[in-house]
Amino acid sequence: MTESQKIAALVFEKINKTPDDYYKMYPARNLSKKSKVTRFAPSPTGFLHIGGLFASLISERLAHQSEGVFFLRIEDTDKKREVTDGVTGIIQGLTSFDIQIDEGIIGFQKESGDYGPYLQSERALIYQAFAKSLMERGLAYPCFCTEEELTKIRERQESDKLLPGYYGNFAKCRNLPQEEVEQKIKAGLPFVVRLKSQGTENGKIKFKDGIKGEIEMPQNISDIVLLKSDGIPTYHFAHVVDDTLMHTTDVVRGDEWISSVPVHLELFSAIGQPCPKYAHIAPIMKESEDGGKRKISKRKDPEAAVSYFLDEGYPPEAVIEYLLNLANYNFEDWRRQNPGASIDEFPFDIKKMSPSGALFDLVKLNDVSKTVISQMTAEHVLSSVLDWSKNQDQDLYTALSSDPDYGLAIFSIDRGGEKPRKDLVKWSDVKNYVSYFYDTLFDKRYDIPENIQKDDIKAIVDYYKGLYDSNDDKDIWFQKIKNLCGPFGYASEVKIYKKNPEAYKGHIGDISNIIRIAITGRRQTPDLYAISNLLGKSRVISRLEQFLGFIGEEAK
Q1: Domains (ranges, CATH) in the chain?
Q2: For the whole model, what pTM was predicted?
């Protein structure tokens, strides 16, 4: 038995499995060569970030377009920073946006798949088996340096302007004699397990990033920590072991991890396994106060959390459409050419991602969301609004759920056709949108135009009240409005008014607008004829009378 094997046996006396045992437990997946295996591997240390949703969407697209597997692994080794219900929040966030998880963590204390456990905190023995193997081969060693000693090393490196890290002459425990190591272990001194790096100061590594292309960097020379003193691995070591055993082929992650690639490539080489393909995405940016760009901030920007979009009532499919628009520059053209197609049909291409950060534009998201909602069926809209309002707006939920058929009729007005209306951006807009259909929600505030005399307004509404007949078809109804124009000095057609505006007080649009305001309180609405029919004659007459009372009070 070599010295390295003796030390490994002492350090890992309870570990009796080898990496080969785990390779047999987790054999290669039965997938085609083109299939990609991707993952989302967040830490449960806070809310699901929009950047996390972005990365998981890209990972899911890569997997499912190649008939592969997308799994959710939770990297929960940092228990000090873990938040209550962090895992549940991540899962709910992904499922709310229809990110399809094929295996991994699927619920509270629930997982599915043959390559688990998918919680890193439950995989300690696996990591220790791999660390033991490295130590047996002289590629890892126990380090007994205290925090005080490590602080002195950092301070020395800073003062001498040297590369930070535990390497070279600073790696005090790297070549300790076997006897001294055994004495320290038997004495119960705490230690970590470090990689014995094979990198050189002048060495270089090259790798091809899926988004940023060819990258060359210095080799890793630091003897990084593999296992902390409690036997729990660092992120660097854990993800290498996990991605090996779970047969991950492609890793999509933020470009802040590029600096760690030399470490990761060395670790994969050390355990004798191929490295997955890396694709590093730039952070989603936001326009800063000075006109430049900055990262979306967890502290400053509510839209950093995906819960913001759910609370506001953005349809999840609209958010996903927008993120795909950020991800691939050709998505917008594809959507224009395929307006009714599922996003699953979009040929996502990671090579068409920008290497620089995409700018998050709430105005653009709103535009996308308007279009998405305008193409939904009335049934889809009603169902979505009911789901959202049940927890977010009880008054709206009570109104809509009291008569679902009536609610369905509201959302059916002007829906469909080549140019559907785009009144709604998100479900939180719905209460205002439908308020005039419900006496309990109607606020009786009237957006009265300033260019029409109040006496004319009162007279027109009063006259219309006597004309209105709910049995009229649309042509007769509209003709009655046209007939109102002449007696009050308004042109019955806009083009007539434009030819000789001095001859008229206004045109038929002004007359229609007065009636619209009297019934709904606002100037912009869907089809007034359909609205009136849905409200019913008694309610229309009541609204007209309420308006006349308001105008009368205004005139005093």
Answers
A1: 3-16+124-281 (3.40.50.620), 378-435 (no CATH), 454-555 (1.10.10.350)
A2: 0.90
